[in-house]
Each structure stands twice: as C-alpha cells, then as structure tokens.
Write a structure and sequence with these properties.
alpha/beta, binds nicotinamide-adenine-dinucleotide, Rossmann fold, globular, five-stranded antiparallel sheet, four-stranded parallel sheet, binds 7alpha-hydroxycholesterol, 385 residues, transmembrane
C-alpha cells in the first residue's frame, strides 16, 4: 500500500512517506513555517483518512473538494485552526482515531514572546489532550524535541545517550521549557478515560535537529555563504558533535507510531522515543557542509580568529540589541547566547528503542537523505533569501 502523508517541518517542507498506511489521524500541516512570522496563531491541522479504494494511487495528490487531497489510498483534509482555541481543536479532532500533534511554535531566536510560546506549545497541547478526552479519541502521538532533555544550561555534553541516560535536564529558555511541560502533560494523560470509557494511550517522539527539504536555517546559511563569496566561517569546534535526523524519517516514525499504538498500547503507552536515523554525528556546521559543500560553499577555519569569548560577546550584544530595538523593530539574528550554547554543546543520541518497540527502520538511508537535501539546496540556488 502506498501512502503519501504530509507533515509540518521547518519552513514548510512536505515529506513523502511511503509503503505502509495509517488508518486515520490528525496532524499539523504546514501553514506558517518559520518564514510566516512568529505569532503562532491561526494555523492548520490536517486529517488523514482512508480514501475510497477506487481512487487508486495518485501521483502527488489532486484536490478533491477544497482542502482535501487524495494521495494514494489516503485522503488528507486540511482544516485551518488555532491550537490555542479549544473549540477549534475539538472540532478538528472529533471522530479521529489517532491524533498526531506536531503543531508548535519553534522559536529560539526571540521572535515571539515567551507568553506566546507557552500559549501555543503548552496551552495548545492541553487543548489537544482535552479534545481527545471529550471526543473519545484514544491515541495521541506528540512531537516533542531533544530539547526537553538538553543541552542543559550547564552545557553538559550528552554523548551517544538514549532515552534512559541520566542527564540533568534544566532549562531557562521558553522554547525547551514549553516543550518539556507539554511533553509531561501528554505522558501524564496516558491512561486517562476518554469519552466512551476507554483509556487514552499517548507517547512522545523527540526529534534531534531536523534537516531536509525546506530547512529554513540551511537556506539562510546557504544565502549567507553566497553573499560571502562562497565561504562560511567556522565558529564552533569540529569536535562538538550533534545528532541530526532527516525530515522524511521523522515523518515515517510518526506514521509507524500512529499505526502501532493500538496493537502495542501496553508497551508504548506513556513512552518517549528519540527520532534517529543513519545520519552521521558531526558538528552542526560540518553537517550542514554535507549539503552546502556540493552546492559550491566551503567552510573556512577561523577558530583562531574568532575565539569563543568573542562569539559569546557578540551573542550577548545581539541579545542586548534585540531588547533595545524591540519597541522599534524585530532584530532576531541566528546568534544569541542560547543558540551559541546549543551549537557549542555535544548532543548525540544512540538508541534502538523505536526499533525494539515498534519495528522502526529509517525509510530513507543517509545517502537518500543527503541526495534529496542537496537537490533541494540546488533548487533554492538563485531564489531570493
Ligand atoms: N525543526 C526541528 O529541528 C525540530 C526538532 C525537534 C522537534 N521539533 C518539533 O517539531 C514540530 C514541528 O516543528 P517544525 O520545525 O516543523 O516547525 P514549523 O514552524 O515548520 O512547523 C510548526 C507548525 O505548527 C503550526 N502552528 C504554529 N502555531 C500554531 C497554532 N497556534 N495553531 C495551529 N498550528 C500552529 C505552523 O503553522 C507550522 O505548520 C514542533 O512541535 C517542534 O517543536 C522540531
Ligand atoms: C553559533 C552559530 C555560528 C551557529 C548557530 C547555529 C544555531 C542557530 C543552531 C545550532 C543547533 C540548532 C538547534 C538544534 O539543531 C536542535 C533544535 C531542536 C528543535 O526542537 C528546535 C530547533 C533547534 C533548537 C535548533 C535551532 C538552531 C540551532 C540552535
């Protein structure tokens, strides 16, 4: 059975997911993305339902009636709504068998206020849980983040860790704090009685840094490199390693969980799973060069020219400027004390929990993921930054 499912990721990419089906579900579909501003309001959710058999496979989806796309045996209906509005969420969730809650405000650059981040990520998640309870939906999959674990404010490395690795998860930044609170709410809701008397089964997926088609920050680095005459300047030592995961594999993991949660409720209910694949461990910048290198950029080693204390000073200056300029304009550069700390702290995951619990294997090999991402960067070439 071929299924095409669309999921929201940074900068509105659409990830194709193939081979196995999901019977019904509810996901966030791209509506805003990073470029769309950071208000976090009025976005989309989408419903996946089994399309009538006679429709047959479709080569990319045709609009049936407004907001509905038939993709193979799956029909995706887009319903625009705002997760902070409980009644809109309940209306979208009603009748769904599985809910995949990926909607969130991803902001580590200070574009949105902490209040808005909490409203979308925490209150929005409460609304999704309550909607499941009220409407009798029994299965809920939450897109959490590696950031609920770390890196922590002490900058402790998390090296080849798994879901059971002890780590002091202490945060101050609104984004990881909100994701951690939301994840806790979802896991605590496991076992709650839903309308009709059955129990809710929940679990959370924790992607590491997602890359792939539509990755806005990759696009920003690419355009910056072009502006600098084909060069990017290394800021972080190559020895600081990060785990990254391809968007299509993140999507695939969500589909598998949605499929398997009912059959394996006792094992999977209340569990967390890191999202992982075969992407190599590398520093953030070296990893990006896997795609930007073949597109003509090179990474110039300037470690001696730009020492860490200078980067920290620049990051602090950026934060100060952001605060000073806020009444006049939004100044939100990539470099701030938080992003510098994340970029400069090793966070690598080594686990097979998803494979053990629900048979996950990456759908896209590292080679496929790399090729697809390079092709996308090449297509971005020449487009306006
Ligand atoms: N990008 C990453 O590296 C990464 C890593 C780990 C986890 N995540 C998580 O994955 C999920 C998707 O993130 P992304 O990177 O694709 O970001 P994204 O900004 O591309 O997608 C977020 C989606 O949420 C929707 N949304 C925002 N506010 C909403 C609201 N009030 N109501 C309804 N929908 C709303 C947006 O329209 C967008 O489609 C988020 O929950 C994020 O925390 C992302
Ligand atoms: C120091 C500068 C030269 C480089 C700045 C890079 C910085 C913007 C990058 C580095 C690491 C990135 C984060 C990491 O990949 C994981 C996540 C988790 C996810 O839930 C949200 C996005 C986030 C925080 C990435 C944001 C961009 C970061 C900080």
């Amino acid at each position: 059975m071929a299924v095409e499912c669309r999921v929201a990721t940074r900068g509105r990419p659409m990830a194709r997911v193939g081979d196995r089906g999901v019977e019904a579900g509810l996901v966030s579909v791209p509506g805003m993305g990073q470029e769309g501003g950071a208000s976090g309001r009025g976005r989309c959710v989408g419903r996946l339902t089994q399309a009538p058999r006679e429709e047959g496979p479709s080569s990319g989806g045709q609009f049936g009636h407004p907001g509905t796309v038939a993709a193979g045996p799956v029909q995706v209906t887009a319903i625009q709504g705002d997760v902070t509005q409980a009644h809109e969420v309940a209306a979208a969730v009603a009748g769904a068998h599985v809910v995949i809650h990926t909607a969130g405000l991803v902001d580590v650059f200070g574009r949105a206020s902490p209040e808005t981040i909490y409203e979308v990520n925490v209150q929005g998640t409460k609304n999704v849980i309550e909607a499941c309870v009220q409407t009798g939906t029994r299965f809920l999959v939450y897109t959490s983040s590696m950031e609920v674990v770390g890196p922590n404010i002490k900058g402790h490395p998390f090296y080849r860790g798994n879901e059971d690795t002890p780590y002091e998860a202490i945060h101050r930044h609104p984004y990881p704090c909100s994701k951690a609170q939301a994840e806790r709410l979802v896991l605590e809701a496991n076992g709650r009685k839903v309308h009709g008397g059955l129990s809710l089964v929940t679990c959370a997926l924790r992607p590491t840094g997602i890359y792939g088609e539509g990755h806005q920050i990759m696009r920003d680095f690419y355009h910056q490199g072009l502006r600098l005459g084909g060069r990017l300047f290394r800021a972080i030592p190559a020895s600081v390693e990060h785990s990254r995961v391809y968007v299509g594999n993140v999507a695939w993991m969500h589909v598998l969980v949605a499929q398997e949660l009912e059959q394996r409720a006792a094992l999977m209910g209340g569990q967390v799973y890191f999202c992982y694949d075969e992407s190599p461990y590398k520093s953030y910048e070296d990893f990006n060069m896997e795609f930007l290198g073949p597109c003509g950029l090179r990474l110039v080693d300037t470690r001696l020219l730009v020492p860490y204390w200078l980067l920290m000073l620049l990051a602090t200056l950026n934060a100060l400027l952001q605060w000073l300029l806020r009444p006049l304009l939004l100044y939100a550069p990539l470099l701030n004390p938080y992003t510098l700390a994340v970029a400069n702290t090793t966070f690598t995951v080594s686990t097979n929990k998803a494979q053990r619990h629900f048979g996950y294997k990456p759908l896209f090999s590292w080679e496929d993921s790399r090729t697809r991402t390079i092709r996308w960067v090449q297509a971005v070439e020449g487009s306006a930054p």
